[in-house]
Amino acid sequence: MNIQATLQELDSYFQQGEYAKVEPFLLSSLTQAEAENDKASALSILNEMMGFYRSTSRFGDSLAAASKALGLMEAMGLKGSVHYATTLLNVATAYRADGQTAKAIEIFEEVGRLFSKLGVQDAYLVATLYNNLAMAWQESGEHAKAIQFLEAALPLSRARPGAEVDVAVSLTNLALSRVKLGELAQARAALHEAVQIFESRPRVSGHYSAALAALGEVAYKEGVPQEAIAYYERALHDIEARYGKNMNYAITLESLALVLEDSDPTRSAQLVAEATQISAALK
User: Fold this and answer.
1) What percent of the chain is predicted at pLDDT more than 70?
2) How confident is the model over 17-31, as pLDDT tens digits?
3) For residue 137, which of 103, 125, 142, 258 is within the disulfide window of CB 3.0 to 4.6 Å?
């Protein structure tokens, strides 16, 4: 199997917004790799599957792909290698997305120990670890710790040519923690920089909607409801176009419902009901 050609075709589906083609392509590619006993290609595809299923809120499928990937790596004798550590990073992210935050942090810290032991200095890998560990701390309510890791990740990404989207992702996550700590002006500045980067690269990142939703939260907390509504509606449109009505879509619906609670209680209740229905269907 020509894995580079396979990954390029996969990337083209994301770039062109042809998301319905992604899962069938991944499944058929994995079947081909397994039939050819091409373990390296199968591993690459499983890593892509982890990310895709995570982004579409199919957490059980993401964890199943993670388990299969780890088993394959052990069979290949790669346990303890840099490649194993990077796959473990994806596994931890799958656990974090599934809400198993303590387990995710445990695995992220294991990745950090492996990176240190193996002398990994790759700025992309280290920044990815810091970003994901920061998100896990965010989800644990430890926003000061999250900011610490995000501020460590940002200079690594800013120094890498072509890493502007990674910078925008870190800025978005940094802003989310600053919002929770009441640092609204700093959050807004970070988010405007992030959105500017995302909009200069359309369809490159699914984190664009997170930045829009965060701006919605900032506007709501600053007492500008119409601006908040506009940002939340833009975020909903982007999420649905990329991934359908996933868990992030449901969460954003609930946020929009909160803004509308006083001005349009009927619509607010409808949005809450829709969010509940989506969440129930994904469990």
Assistant:
1) 99
2) 888 999 999 999 999
3) 142
